[in-house]
Amino acid sequence: MKTLLDCLRNVPLFGALVDCSGRDHWNSLGETVVTLVLSTTPLWLGALIIYVTAPQSDVRYFSALQTTVSRGELFMYSTAFLAPIFWIALTDPPGARRFPSKVSHMIIIAVINMIAAVFFGLNVAGKQMNPVRAFPLSVVLFCTSVSLFYLGTVYHASRMPDPAGEFRREEASFTEAYREHRDEP
To answer: Domain-by-domain residue ranges, the chain?
Structure first.
């Protein structure tokens, strides 16, 4: 079993998941959902407004949602979602282990940011994009960004020291040092 886990740890990007606890995943899932809901409020709330105010009753919510993101908006959201992970991956706080898969994260973040920036820039410049190709690309980049955000937050949570455990370890170390000091002649 240890050999299998060691092999899995070497898988780029996903290997460090074997060292993440259920609590790390739960906390990261919560952070990802809250960030996703709050940061995309203009998109889903705009779609809700379109849906509720549409004069025809055959407008579906997901059609309204697609209209709010069909002009390249998800390209911008893709890069915004990755900004915190860029910082988290590049900094190792005191007491924290090294961020796993740092190089893999940075490469994928750079590729997504370049693609998203180019297509968002083309859109802002008024260049016509083929919506049949651009929209699915923006959805794929956005979903990949959300996945990287989740991975980054779960890795960050797993590498941080447990404050209570760290306090107990320091207390035990102090107590041991004190006993040794008292027992000296």
So the answer is: 20-160
